[in-house]
Amino acid sequence: MNTNPENTGVSKYARSFGLSLALASVVNGLLVVAKEKSPAIQSAMQKLTGHHWVTHGVIILGLYAGCGLIFAKSNGGQGVKLTANGLIAAVAAGVGIGGLIILGFYLIGD
User: Fold this and answer.
1) How deeply is 15 buried, as exposed, middle or buried, from its count of CB atoms within 10 A (0-12, 13-18, 19+)?
2) Of all residues in the chain, what percent carry a pLDDT higher than 70?
3) In this structure, are residues 78 and 12 in contact, taking their beta carbons and an 8 Å threshold?
4) pTM for this one?
5) Buried b (16+ CB within 10 A) or exposed e, 35-63
6) Which pLDDT value is given to residue 109?
7) What is the pLDDT of residues 59-109, one digit of tens each?
8) Of 4, 74, 77, 79, which one has the greatest count of Cβ atoms within 10 A?
9) What would the DSSP string read from start to end of 25-91?
10) CB 30: neighbour CB atoms within 10 A?
11) How far apart are CA 39 and CA 52, in angstroms?
12) Which pLDDT band, with edges at 50, 70 and 90, does 37 fall under?
């Protein structure tokens, strides 16, 4: 039995949408800072859907879904090439960085 986590099969959709989650998490943090620092951005986002948080959610969910599908079709339809450990590291890093951006902004930059 092979118990090496590097050789554990991870589907192309798990890899692709995991990487998309990491990217969307970082963009989410940056978008929070951008709209909180720029009244023009927040106002434009509010005009699009009636509330800036709704627009924010639509942008992040759209980015997540769109990038996940694009990543799944990469490499001739085989998806992104990541090991299980690489995927875990990417998700942890993306979510951590996104969280730190928001935390840092509200603790220091606001």
Assistant:
1) buried
2) 92
3) yes
4) 0.87
5) bbeeeeebeebeeeeeebeebbeebbeeb
6) 74
7) 999 999 999 999 999 999 999 999 999 999 999 999 999 999 999 999 997
8) 79
9) HHHHHHHHHHHHH-HHHHHHHHHHHSSHHHHHHHHHHHHHHHHHHHHHHHHHHT-----HHHHHHHH
10) 15
11) 11
12) very high
Q: b/e string for 82-99 if b means 16 or more Cβ within 10 A?
A: bebebbeebbeebbeebe
Residue 32 corresponds to which tokens in the numbers above?
């929070």
Q: What is the pLDDT of residue 8?
A: 59
Q: What is the pLDDT of residue 92?
A: 98
**Distance set, CA 48 to CA 17, 28, 42, 53 (Å):** 27, 18, 10, 11
Tell me the three state secondary structure of residue 97.
helix
Are 80 and 16 spatial neighbours (Cβ–Cβ below 8 Å)?
yes
